Amino acid sequence: MILCIVLVALFSGKTSLATDAWEAWQQKAGPISVVDQNPVQLLFLQPMPDRATPLPEGHSMIRINTTLTNTLVSKASDHYEATLDMEAVRIRLEASYGLLPGLELACSVPVSHYYSGLLDKAVYDVEDFFGNIRGIRESETRNRFTYAVKKDGTTFISGSENTVGLGDVVMRVKAAVLKGRDGGPALSARACLKLPTGRASKAFGSGKTDWGVGLLLEQDIQKATVYVNGDVTFPGEAFEDEGVFLQEFFTILFGAEYRFTPRFSVIAQLYHTGRPFQDTGVEVLDRRIYELVLGASYRIQQSLVIQGGLVEDIIDSADATADVTFFLDLGILF
Questions:
Q1: CATH of the domain at 307
Q2: How many independent structural domains does the chain possess?
């Protein structure tokens, strides 16, 4: 958190670009800044969905993102076993700054709270309404807590009930490649670094440094904007001592924002992520994930934006990730 405050404070007094460039940047609210909330996947670097156009020089944004996630998965194979029956509230503070024309720096600090849950009955009722109750949901003992991943009977990831902890801090740099002039697309490259600041013994971090690189594309089409992100993450060998080896994985985002008014827009995203684990035979560890993200954005003031919505797994990702995630995001621009 201190890094984020220092990042903004050091540069907040610099001269900004022309007013029209800053106003044009403020007109868009997407994409939605939320990643897959599977507690195991959150141990590793997941680059946040982002737009290709960097913040104009001298301008800053502080984002406070809160997610509420209900997770229920339990699978076993010959060597691996994973059971997650829990809820989590995750608050992420992110600060971004336009250091130079076409160059943006950012850092984010997450804090998580693990607990037994309040949404189990509500999720069951929704699945019942749509006639698609998962077998594990029907047999679940509601509002209990379990978070354990084992190999050959030995636990190598575990979380505790009613705990709060700092997660892994992520630093990011984004540089413009194409600036999107004359109606053309904007294109940027980015690099991300995850620092092992979260306590691995409580499953708030992996205990290792991860890094990744990616490309961001943004294209305006009248009142709509299309966003595309593609990243590859290289995780540190967090569980090498337990004989669990990790691999690089890809994340891809396709998103669209439609602005009904200068203040109000709706955003839809299709999010795909690979997994760092391989050949475990357990979906919650190594099955790729598809999620649909739906949200709305409202500009309360010129410098204050609020977003809200939900994330739902789709296709065959039900046994690979969280059941449902609700998010609320507050952005402050200056």
A1: 2.40.160.40
A2: 1
